[in-house]
Structures are given as structure tokens and as C-alpha cells.
Amino acid sequence: MTPNTGSQKKRVLLVDDHPLVREWLKTLIDQQPDLAVCGQAATAAEAMQAVAASKPEVAIVDISLKDSSGIDLIINLKTGSPQTAVIVLSMHDEAHYVQRALRAGAQGYILKRDATAKVLAAIRCVLEGRACFSDEVSSTIAEKVAEGWPVTDSLIGTLSKRESEVFRLLGRCYSTRRISQEMQVDLKTVQTFCSRIKEKLRLSSGTQLLREALRWHDRQE
Q1: Which of 76, 98, 188, 209 is the most exposed place for a label (fewest CB within 10 A)?
Q2: Which distant-in-sequence residues (6+ apart) come within 8 Å of 220 by Cβ?
Q3: Is 6 helix (H, G, I), strand (E, B) or coil?
Q4: C-alpha to C-alpha distance for 59 and 171, rounded to whole angstroms
Q5: Residue among 174, 171, 191 at smallest CA distance from 65
């Protein structure tokens, strides 16, 4: 699509807790004749303040933020600023992340390993009211997600208080780094909790653990 250079530039908000990612996006977007970065945020709280101040047409949001899940932020954005289109820019291509982002209200889902042209295409797509996804994400959406073995509530009941807290935060899409900050423990301790949870819930991998935590979280909503 050829940008319309005669119209006012569309405002884009960047929400990512990595300064280098925000700087890369700002340089890319500000070079475009039809787009301009109107604000940056590293946390969900900063993002909501920036939305109120600059009223962006598009927000580019990472899944994992310093103070909360990007999924929770998307829900708040769509409630507080429904006119702002949301694109997820993430390193995660797993189906559970994509499904939850779309359920929260995201119109696009792009992977950080995609070419810069894909990011620009996604911005212009959502500005036109159309959805846009990475090729890999489109394939993920098209495929049937294997249900696997469901974790029962009785097994979850065997978790200790601290293990339950880790499991709950995993279900909110928190990274292990963010969980360590939230619980005020070191990263190795969180990883130990994850290993214990996998053993108690009879899970064989970190991917299965994350999937079951997300399912459990969805059942609580």
C-alpha cells in the first residue's frame, strides 16, 4: 500500500520494556511520511498515561512488561481508548499467546524476528481496520491446537502457596524474570518453583506448564 503523504501523520505509541526495541521502532516509524511516534512507555502504567496524553491511533505492545502482562494492558487499552488499534510485537509465536492477545482485542500480531517492512505493513493494515499477522502466526492460527492432557484442579490443589503464586503469574503471561521481581526472589528460585510445579502437575516441559497455567487462568475469568 502506498502511504498517503497528503494526510496528517498517524500517531503511534510504543510499549516495550526494552529501550533498544523502542529506539529501533521509533527510528523506523519516524522515517515514514504518514506515521509518527507520539510516545513511548516501558510499563502498563506509563502506557495508559501516554494514551491519555497523546491519543494514538495505533499502539504497538509487547506481551511481557515490567509491571504487568501486555495482555492485561491490551484489555485496558480497548476499554479506555477503543479507537486505538493494538498490534502485538512479540518474540512468542505459540498459539496460547496469540489466542489470548486476540481475545483481549489486538488487531495484529507480529514477531520481533520479522522484517521491518512487516511492522510497517501491520500498522497501515490496522489503520484501515484490517487485521495483520506474521506468516508464522497465521499458520499457527490456521492449525488445530492439540488439547493435550488437562491438568485437574485436584492436582493444582497440591501446590504450595508460593508455587500457586508462580503458577498464577505464569497464567497472566508474566515472564520468570518479572515473577522474580513481583515475588521479590531471585530468578533461580522462580525456576526451582517451576520445576516443582511441573513435577506435581505431571508435566514434562516448560511449554506444557505455560499452556496449563494459561488454561487455568482463563477458567478463573
Answers
A1: 188
A2: 171
A3: coil
A4: 23
A5: 174
- Going by their DSSP bridges, the two strands 108-111 and 85-90 should be labelled as parallel
Residues facing residue 89 across a β-bridge: 110
- Return the CATH number at 34: 3.40.50.2300
Residue 75 in grid coordinates: 484489555
pLDDT for the residue numbered 103: 80
Question: What pLDDT, on the 0 to 100 scale, is given for residue 180?
Answer: 94
**pLDDT for the residue 68:** 81
H-type helices in 157-221, by residue range?
161-171, 176-183, 187-200, 206-220
Phi and psi based region of residue 177 (left: phi greater than 0; alpha: psi -120 to 50; beta: remaining): alpha
pLDDT less than 50: residues of the chain: 1-2, 5-6, 144-150
